[in-house]
Inverse folding.
């Protein structure tokens, strides 16, 4: 039942591997915005919580930036806008749908399944670093597969090979097409893996979870993804510190064990050399990001209300430098959609992070940690299409807030069924 009702969320989590086999892994991320949005529109009594107001305004504001782009940019603009819609609709739909039909723990398990899938893709990146081939969908669309936007959404590619360290480094990327997006998702999803496989589960499941976690360390290290590392470090220290303030030091002890395990891997495996090179040869990457951030700020000042609508290549920057408006959701919103858009999103996320941090239910801790990872990543990761996961996290947090007030939450009237029909 859950899979039938929540299939747009299933396909971007548990269904990621089969979606990539078909080549629909890029398109699948806009399905929550389209499908869940249609259900919400069809169901007029859907409840929008007060905290969703900034996000609703943001979703309505973004289309104003269409005035700044040529018609050829409309497909990519629409795709990105539907990700924002998906963030809102997933949040609202999860809050309104009857929890007996879509249990919170089932959603957590699905998110954990996506994390495990990303680990598997990380190993495939080391085995097939040069693979770049059209998927079945790519063959179906014919010449359109040569369009970069279409290729990015549908092609088979597990690794993004980069040479910023002085030699080629194949970094895990699937199913997102970029290594930064892979690392971002790993950071945001890690709390859900821990909740699904390690915390409050049977001993047998915990043993399997520990093994999966150990297996995941290697692709996390060889991804040389500093943003992912920072997310995990900040999340681990934050969690251990909050638990220690309550007189519970188990998390702190586990954190220290984790540090020792990672240190051993750095010494005993080739990952140690990669990590060392990444830290020592990051000046070029830092310089490029600084230039992008400076140009994004200057560009936002030139069009502070509606932004520029799309990232722009700066001709005076070195060849190979990414477009201005990428490499950070803060800069993306500021440059593409203006300062008001940035302010609306920051206000919405700040409210939700604060509210989730005050909850005292077993699941709320892990939802809150996922949102903390989102906050940590905003300055340097674009978080697209991860916005849908953020919306799902906020929806789960609101469920936990209701549970905290009423114990086992009553079925939220009205409930949203697959076709938007009241039960």
């Amino acid at each position: 039942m859950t899979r039938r009702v929540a299939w747009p969320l299933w396909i971007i989590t548990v269904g990621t591997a089969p979606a990539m086999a078909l080549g629909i892994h890029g398109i699948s991320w806009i399905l929550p915005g389209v499908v869940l949005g249609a259900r919400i529109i069809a169901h007029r009594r859907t409840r929008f919580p007060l905290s969703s107001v900034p996000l609703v305004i943001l979703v309505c504001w973004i289309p104003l930036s269409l005035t700044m782009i040529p018609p050829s940019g409309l497909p990519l603009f629409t795709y990105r806008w539907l990700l924002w819609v998906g963030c809102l609709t997933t949040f609202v739909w999860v809050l309104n749908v009857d929890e007996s039909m879509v249990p919170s723990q089932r959603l957590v398990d699905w998110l954990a399944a996506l994390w495990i899938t990303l680990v598997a893709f990380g190993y495939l990146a080391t085995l097939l670093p040069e693979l770049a081939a059209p998927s079945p969908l790519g063959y179906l669309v014919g010449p359109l597969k040569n369009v970069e936007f279409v290729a990015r959404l549908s092609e088979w590619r597990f690794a993004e090979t980069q040479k910023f360290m002085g030699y080629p480094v194949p970094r895990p990327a699937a199913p997102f097409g970029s290594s930064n997006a892979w690392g971002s998702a790993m950071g945001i999803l890690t709390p859900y893996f821990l909740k699904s496989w390690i915390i409050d589960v049977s001993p047998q499941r915990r043993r399997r979870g520990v093994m999966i976690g150990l297996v995941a360390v290697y692709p996390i290290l060889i991804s040389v993804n500093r943003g992912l590392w920072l997310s995990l470090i900040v999340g681990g220290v934050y969690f251990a510190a909050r638990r220690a303030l309550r007189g519970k030091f188990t998390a702190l002890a586990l954190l220290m064990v984790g540090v020792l395990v990672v240190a051993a891997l750095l010494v005993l495996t080739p990952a140690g050399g990669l990590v060392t090179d990444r830290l020592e040869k990051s000046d070029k990457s830092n310089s490029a990001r600084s230039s992008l951030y400076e140009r994004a700020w200057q560009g936002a000042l030139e069009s502070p209300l509606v932004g520029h609508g799309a990232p722009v290549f700066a001709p005076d920057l070195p060849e190979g430098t990414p477009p201005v408006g990428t490499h950070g959701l803060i800069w993306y919103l500021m440059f593409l959609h203006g300062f008001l858009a940035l302010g609306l999103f920051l206000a919405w996320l700040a409210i939700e992070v604060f509210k989730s941090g005050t909850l005292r239910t077993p699941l709320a801790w892990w939802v809150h940690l996922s949102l903390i990872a989102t906050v940590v990543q905003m300055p340097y990761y674009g978080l697209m299409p991860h916005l849908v996961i953020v919306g799902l996290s906020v929806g789960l947090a609101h469920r936990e807030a209701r549970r905290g007030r009423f114990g086992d939450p009553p079925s939220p009237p009205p409930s949203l069924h697959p076709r938007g029909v009241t039960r």
